[in-house]
Amino acid sequence: MSTMSGASRPGPPGHDPTAADHVAMQVALSEARAALDHDDVPVGAVVVRAGDVIAARHNERELTNDPTAHAEVLAMRDAAAAIGNWRLDDCTLYVTLEPCAMCAGAMINGRLPQLVYGAPDPKAGAIDSHYSLAAGDILNHGIAVTSGVGADESAELLRAFFRARRA
Ligand SMILES: [Zn+2]
User: Fold this and answer.
1) Which of 3, 83, 150, 162 has CB 3.0 to 4.6 Å from 118, enough for a Cys bridge?
2) Mean pLDDT in runs of 10 for the chain (167 residues)?
3) How many CA atoms lie within 13 A of 82 on its CB side?
């Protein structure tokens, strides 16, 4: 799967994926695998600030019966607590799957400047697949987006999860 730095995406331009992006995404993928322990859809997210992972979480919707317990929301909560500020300036969120509208909204409310995601989500993705919530034209905060990092691994995890569920 090809990566996309955002040349054809509205809003602030993303960057070409770096080695550091791949390292951070591997941590997010480990988180995604941890969600399988409680039969949650395997999605993981980490927040990186100044080169350090300050939060790493996975989807806990089934575990906690909480419709808002997506990996991105949980990771942003932890990151905000870690830095003592709801403004996630200077932070990059890495997530294995394209964020939904709720998570994109949370990123905008946290003034997150940068998002790196893995696989597209044709069903609920609100960054590229449906809407362009990171573009900043409607909600007044643009997020620079890089996509496709670790996409194949992420997509395979999800495929295996849903295949096992159907079996
Ligand atoms: Zn979400």
Assistant:
1) 150
2) 62 94 98 98 98 98 98 98 97 98 97 98 97 89 96 98 91
3) 18
